[in-house]
Amino acid sequence: MSVVPILQYHSVAENPPEWAAPLTVRPDRFDEQLEHLAHAQMSVVPLRRLVSAIRGGPPLPPRAMVLTFDEGFADFYWTVAPMLAARELPATLFVVTGAIHPPGGRPSGSRLPPAMMLNWRQVAGLDAYGIEIGGHSRTHPALDTVSGRTLRSEIEGCKRDLEDALGHEVTSYAYPLGYHGPTVRRAVRQAGWDSACATSDALATTSDDPLRLCRLTVRHDTPISLYDAWIHGRSARLGPPPESLSTWAWRLLRRTHGPGH
Length: 261
Fold this sequence. Notes:
By secondary structure, this protein is an alpha/beta fold. It has helices spanning 27-39, 47-54, 75-87, 120-129, 148-166, 182-191, 224-231, 245-255; strands at residues 3-4, 6-9, 11-12, 24-25, 43-44, 64-71, 92-95, 132-135, 172-174, 195-200, 204-205, 213-217. It has one domain: Alpha-Beta Barrel (TIM Barrel). The chain starts with a strand and ends in a 6-residue tail after the last helix.
């Protein structure tokens, strides 16, 4: 078993909207973090390569790790992608398809508060360049609080949106807000997604369930000492936690307050 940190970013910007500020990393801090990866001689690999290794494919290189970005903020196109390209680093971008702007029109809508988001032309351009585009639902609900047609739309519909726009299969999914459960994971698998990322602030390993991949959330105030510990496989538990009675109780409570919680 190998430990493979999967880092979860959101926005990289100087002046994010207030709601996104806690999960936004300044560009200079992001550049510092990328430099830190280089000095540590980390091997940043595509998410699909990790999934392949979990499923018995070729082994990963030493000090392997994965970079992921959630939501589909416009700064990924203007700020993040050039910084990754300068270092030839792969990444996966999980987009909320209802928040992406179509040519000359308005997005279909999501539960995310207002922010500058990507348009479909930019998403296609990133895909053509080599950034893996993954699904992050259509509207960003807590998936373990919805069911039936709504759940299928958020999982299957998101996949159709992306494949129609990009012209090829997409295989990587990320649970909005990190919430999932057996029913959600079954729906993700049946929809044809090959992997799915949660949050959990835990270290992923090559022994994990590909539909329960843990990530470590990089926040605006994540100290470089903790960042260093994470990429070296320290200061976080291994793998997803077991689903306890308290997990089920918390899920039931959130269902009573609607799918956005």
